[in-house]
Design goal:
Elements: H1 2-19, H2 25-30, H3 32-46, H4 51-75
Helix pairs in contact: 1-4, 3-4
């Protein structure tokens, strides 16, 4: 349930940024390494100090990013 809410908010924000030309699909691909670090940081911030739970929290966040990256190929404005 929470993952679906996260997906809806993340995709809406990303697609809005893509449509207005604030960010591009190419830039999202180049910043993939930074997103991995952000997901791990959020996993550490939002869970208990156990490494396993931190990684379990970071994996769905990163998968949402990859899913939105795939969708952004179709939503990017054609130049």
């Amino acid at each position: 349930m929470i993952v679906l809410f996260e997906l809806a908010v993340w995709l809406a924000l990303l697609l809005a940024l893509l449509k207005f030309g604030v960010i591009s699909h190419r830039r999202l691909r180049r910043l993939r390494w930074l997103m991995i670090l952000i997901c791990l940081w959020l996993g550490a911030l939002l869970t208990t100090p156990e490494v396993l739970t931190q990684v379990v929290m970071a994996i769905p966040l990163y998968l949402l990013y990859e899913f939105s990256l795939r969708l952004s190929q179709n939503w990017a404005p054609k130049i």
